[in-house]
Amino acid sequence: MGKAWTFGENMNTDEIIPGRFNITIDPLELAKNVFCEVKPEYAKNVKLGDVIVGGQNFGCGSSREHAPIAIKGSGAKCVIAPSFARIFYRNTINIGLPILECPEAVDGINEGDLVEVDLKTGVILNKTTGRQFLAKPLPEFILKISEAGGIVNFIQHHEIEELMEGSA
Amino acid sequence: MGTLIEEIFSRKLERQVHAGEIVMVDVDTIMSHDNTTPLAIKAFNEIGKPIKDKNKIVIHFDHAYPAPNLLAAEAQRKSLDFINREGLQNFYHQGVCHQVMIEEGFVTPGAVIIGADSHSNTYGALGAFGTGLGSTEIGVAWVTGKCWFKVPSTIRIELNGNAQLGVFAKDVMIFIAGMIGMDGGTYRSIEFGGSYIDQLPMHERIVFSNMSTEIGAKCGLIAADEITLEYLRHETKAAGDFATLRPVNPTYERILEIDVSTIEPHISCHPDVDNAKPIHEVAGLQVDEVFIGTCTNARYEDIEIVANILRGKTVHPSVRVIVTPASNQIYKKAMVNGLIEVLMDAGCTVTGTGCGACIGRHGGVLAPGERALTTMNRNFIGRMGSPNAEIYLASPATAAATALSGKITDPRNLLSEVTHG
Predict the structure, then answer these.
(1) What is the residue range of B235's domain?
(2) C-alpha span between B83 and B58 (Å, rounded)
(3) ipTM surpassing 0.85, yes or no?
(4) Per the CB < 8 Å rule, is A156 touching B144?
(5) Do the domain assignments include residue B42?
(6) Which residue of chain B has the CA closest to A59?
(7) What's the pLDDT tens digit per position in B287-332?
(8) Domain architecture of chain A: domains with CATH
(9) Pick from B238, B294, B243: which is nearest to B122 by CA?
């Protein structure tokens, strides 16, 4: 269970982590400046297991992986949003940061609410209000990457063609 | 059969594919640059398997080249060591990656190109499928030579009519961004066509594909035609018989029809590309910097129009005017034809080639409270330096007119002087 941190629509990669901090690829270093301009208190107060609740088109902008890495490095358990920008979506899966698409949950969670997320079932429970939501399930081949802990781990042990098996 | 993106994937896989299908494709080219290569090397090293095909890998130094500080220098040194160790031949440092990719002949109709840069959509202007990915996936592609894609559905943008004097592809694209919004094309292929596109030269077509990224699109495609083939033969090193794929009985998710003749010069106002306004609504706003550069608008013809407007005149004394040609090939042509001299005589600072001020780390960084008008493709908060600076996006002609007056200025009067004078 963690605290919800809410963000607006079209949160772009420069707002997640401004380009001037992308001089390192260390997750903990990047996490020190994550959301520094839109929510400076986040990096100081975020706790392991907290949940990011974003608006539509979350992660738009650059292809920089520094953005999802910074969020993962901050200790956030996952990002919930109504929709994600396409490169950010792929990047989160590839680096092993869980994301959930669920417009209803975004509408039903306020900043500071206590939220419990079951990544396997997609069930999102707002403990503060008692409301429960169900996120859209991830496609099977994407689950294979997620379950391996990211694309690097998957490719270490598998051929890339195995992603397609059973999903053709 | 199908939309242009379905045709590209169908040719590649030698079977009919449809939007919504997930496909695994052999990619033709895998691009990365000084900013994104280090993370790709990290992923590659962690995977611990060999490179599949070294000829497919292309690496550019353009974002911060030559290195403006020690950290960048160290990162570039590590990438260079990797390039040398692996014996990679396709290494370039002669301008913005996307322009150099085209000049060097990596971009041909029907090619599948992935790049660790969001503006890899640019290649769609030549009928190639170009799309941006994160670095980790680039490192994976070095090992596998492949990438998975969900074949996107298509929004067709049909542009008809003739643009007014002083209205360029940039103005039309900013107008489109304002109309459909910065997530209006998310996950979609955008197909640009119509009588306006059919007669448009390549440097202008590129603006549409390049900025399809700003509306969230997976790719922004223009079917190759005679203009494309002429450009490939004369302006690039590409050789051979080119596939000229076109949509065949396509089914579109949505078709947008726009009469280009009604559009006036447009500006993307601070702080979002879809905060698009006709120029009369923002004209007169004072600026501190004018930046003409980037993968969007720093080609020869862009520099030529700026030089034609500035010829024999002097830029406003309170404005920094920076011109960063997209590539050395462009810079050289502008120099040979006397354009660089015109720009310098007018008071512009002409820099070396590359991404320049667009990435906020060198070549024109903005201080708090400053406002810039640029030919870039995005104006996110903090993009060019201070988060308390403002960025406005416009065509090269509007940038030149603004450079002269020190405030956002409609270029149409100046252009009629240039044309008729």
Answers:
(1) 4-258
(2) 10
(3) yes
(4) no
(5) yes
(6) B216
(7) 999 999 999 999 999 999 999 999 999 999 999 999 999 999 999 9
(8) 2-137 (3.20.19.10)
(9) B294
